[in-house]
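Below is how a single chain appears once it has passed through the pipeline. First comes the sequence as given, then the structure the pipeline wrote out for it. We keep one example in the README because the format questions we get most often are answered faster by looking than by reading.
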Amino acid sequence: MVIMKNMNKYFVCVPLFLFLVLAIELVLAADFKPTDKILLNCGGPAVSTDPDGREWTTDNGSKFGSSAVKSTTSQAATQDPAVPQIPFMTARVFQSPYTYSFPVASGWKFLRLYFYSASYGGLNASDARFGVTAQSYTVLRNFSVSETALGLNYDYIVKEYCIHVDEGTLNVTFTPSANASKAYAFVNGIEVVSMPDIYTSTDGTTMIVGTGTTFTIDNSTALENVYRLNVGGNDISPSKDTGMFRSWTDDVRYIYGAAFGVTETADPEVKLEYPPGTPSYIAPSDVYVTARSMGPNPNISLNWNLTWIFSIDSGFSYLVRLHFCEGTTTITKVNQRVFDIFLGNQTAQDGADVIAWADSFDLPHSNGVPVHKDYVVFAPNGPPQQDLWLALHPNTASKSNYYDAILNGVEIFKISDSKGNLAGTNPPPPQVQDLIDPSLARKSSKSKSHTGIIAGGIGGGVALLLLIGLFAFGTSRRRRNGKDSSTSEGPSGWLPLSLYGNSHSAASAKTNTTGSYTSTLPSNLCRHFSFAEIKAATNNFDESLILGVGGFGKVYKGEIDGGSTKVAIKRGNPLSEQGVHEFQTEIEMLSKLRHRHLVSLIGYCEENTEMILVYDHMAYGTLREHLYKTQKPPLPWKQRLEICIGAARGLHYLHTGAKYTIIHRDVKTTNILLDEKWVAKVSDFGLSKTGPTLDNTHGKY
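Resulting structure:
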């Protein structure tokens, strides 16, 4: 009987133990469950659902807004089909300070503010200029949505902050700027979501790079997320996050140079196992099962750095969180893949070994173990914006099995200063952007030779130029068969280029009874010049200032803004129906595209029957001028290679980096321009077309 009683206790204890283990595993594997989840569609209908399936409620008559302060609601005058309707197509507008008060549980909160630059209630979009405070923190100051969207080439802006709430109410105040007479404030959407305490650091483990001292992030600190990347993987939408509705983007646009490394996917037999103290909601599993590495060839890896470049505001400290996970069955032991980490041209981590980090947790295996490392970088005062470089390089001192490096994810947060400020400046307009291609003008740290970079550039350039050749070949075949791309039907066919949803054709531009041109272009695309300004800039179209003559018209050298800015002014033939179409297409295209290897459109003039485009001046003219029947000195082969790679990068961006897949359709040496630094710029987009994503274009070129 005694034995039976003991056995009964044993059989009771074992299931109880297994239940507890299972419960713990379920807790660790579960998404975060926010206690507060508020999504306000400002000025919108009572209830609406966004494309990600999340439900938003209106702020009309809500308990969160202030009834004592007047505000208005309005629909966006420009309904861009590329922008989600919810929450961006309606807004609440404020002419005086306005406060939202959100009753929430104490603790950390994500505050996300949604903005779309458009005219609301007849107000000029460029007059929207305001500040925002959240609790005691200044998160925005003199903020211009239109300048930010233009400078960053974004259709809409989402600002995300991490703020600790002590007393159960989160106050968010919008205040029009006092230094602008017509200034007003607006917001399209507000999101407040509870978050776990996953970004603070009070244990002395987070180091300030280059100083050897620790940095404390506690409840008195506010953070602004500026970048969140799924390295080597695809975008992750808020609904696919781990309960906190974070957005993760791919890393391709931030990679430095021609060599992108190698994307890796975890082997199917490698299962993720989160170490003790690390909840699975720290990042989505998709972050840890994809990665970017340098590749298997040590002769290449040792001669370059795997590098990303991020534009940040000067004068702030930044928290940089790097996510790692070895997902392959071939790397399971210490000292197989060891690398150094550089941040801001300083060593952040010497001899990083993901397996060694995982080994410290005493788990049954060391691959498939997600780990993250935090570093703090200070961006000193200087120009309003500067570049933060993140670079990885094989550690040669360790003599590891593989001279390689790996990264799965990146999160970068701006840290509030001692005055509680997070507000930076608006980004510069695109016409004054940095004209130097960093992949050609800057040296990466630690690299002892540029052989790898040049080799990667040659390979990438040749591959892209081959791709261009295939496009041209396919297009010519279609034309010979009488199947011009413009006649394609259905969503998979190429369409006339329109980045605003209403495809303009020659017939859509009308001439009134006095002969003046009636524009169908949206009014907020880019700078509008009067004809008098154009005449002054070109000395009344002085023939001695002609730079060239093309199918569209003459191109003049000019000066604007009191002679401070040199420009190229293209004057079109107003009687040409094809010219009208190309004029509209050029404006729609270049006003939405910003890339260092695409020519920058400054503005246009459309008074009376004029069709005039104003561009950045390209000091060295066209590539053709330096290749054929020229008295100019021959270009060195290295410079020719750099020009080819630059043009290929511009075309590659059109094919894969822009919102829509864009085919230039008129690539030739006269349409590749060279600025004063010999940086190649693809120009003349009048014949360009846009269409489906590359996934839907196989066999249809």
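The longest strand covers residues 385-394.

See the next section for the split statistics.
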